[in-house]
Amino acid sequence: MILNQAEQSSDETILYIYDPNSAKELLTQLEKIKEVPGDLTRAYRSALNVSYSKDTIATAVMSKRVLESILKNFLGEEVKGQNLSKQFEQLPEHVDLARPLQSLSQLAQPGSAFYQMLDLEKDIDQEMASLLMELLESLIEYLFVLPNKIELLQQKLNQKLH
Which is nearest to 16 in space by CA: 27, 3, 29, 7? Predict the structure, then answer.
């Protein structure tokens, strides 16, 4: 989609590209993280394949397998036989979602090199500027985009099911 905004003083045209294969990017990322169990990667790859082939029943089956694999990874084998609802209820007890933020608080302590960089007491190069922007994007995605996206998807699923 090309959007030419007349109210801007520039002659530039902004190009927006939607990549339907962006889910494959997640698969590539999963394959690079050694802590991700192989069965999760395989189940997600299968879910992608069946969803691309428009096999809705197989997509539902493979989606359940992906969810079970994710939950089993964090909860262990003791949840075997419990329904997904019970497993999701237990997930916050096993996953420390605050840990990434707590590690950032340590990084940004007054007097640290990171703190000095943000206060312009220390020069940064282009690589550091890029890393800083990547950190900002990740934080925004983690704190705002992802929770909102999950909530909206849950609402849409509920509307579709009722």
Answer: 3
CA distance 121 to 13: 37
Which two three-digit tokens encode residue 88? Answer: 């999701």
DSSP per residue, 31-99: HH-TTS-HHHHHHHHHHHHHHHTT-HHHHHHHHHHHHHHHHHHHH-GGGTTS-HHHHHHHHHHH--TTH
**What is the C-alpha to C-alpha distance for residues 128 and 144, in angstroms, rounded to an integer?**
24
Average pLDDT over residues 54-76: 92
**Each residue of 83-95: pLDDT tens digit?**
999 999 999 999 8
CA–CA dist 142, 75 (Å, integer): 22
The crossing angle, in degrees rounded to 10, of helices 38-52 and 56-75 is: 160
Output the six-digit token pair for 154.
Answer: 């849950």
